[in-house]
Amino acid sequence: MSDCMPGSPYFDEIPKGILTWPKLLAIATPVTGLLLLVGWKYDALIELLLTFTVMLVLLAIYRK
Predict the structure, then answer these.
(1) How far apart are CA 42 and CA 7, in angstroms?
(2) What is the rounded CA–CA span in Å between residue 63 and residue 57?
(3) What is the pLDDT of residue 44?
(4) Helices 45-63 & 21-41, crossing angle to 10 degrees?
C-alpha cells in the first residue's frame, strides 16, 4: 500500500462556476464589513447580529 496522497480531484484546473473559499471570502468579507459598519453607525448591531444568527440557523435546518 502506498503512503502517497492522491492528486487533486480536478483533472487539469478548477471547473468554471465553482465557488471556492478564496472567492467566497473575497465576496463575503467586504459585504460583512460594510454591514457591520452601517449597523454600528445606526446603533443596530444587536439586531444585525441576531438577523445573521437566525439566517444561519435557518440555513442549517434547511440543509439538514
Answers:
(1) 50
(2) 10
(3) 94
(4) 150
**pLDDT tens-digit profile, the chain (64 residues):** 445 556 666 667 777 778 888 888 999 999 999 999 999 999 999 999 999 999 999 999 998 8
Grid cell in block for residue 27: 465576496
The H-assigned helical ranges of the chain are 21-41, 45-63
Q: Which of 21, 48, 55 lies closest to 34 in space, CA to CA?
A: 48
Position 13 scores a pLDDT of: 74
Distances (CA, A) of 2 to 5, 8, 10, 60: 8, 17, 21, 38
Torsion (CA) 48, 50, 52, 54 in degrees, nearest 10: -150
Sequence length of the chain is: 64
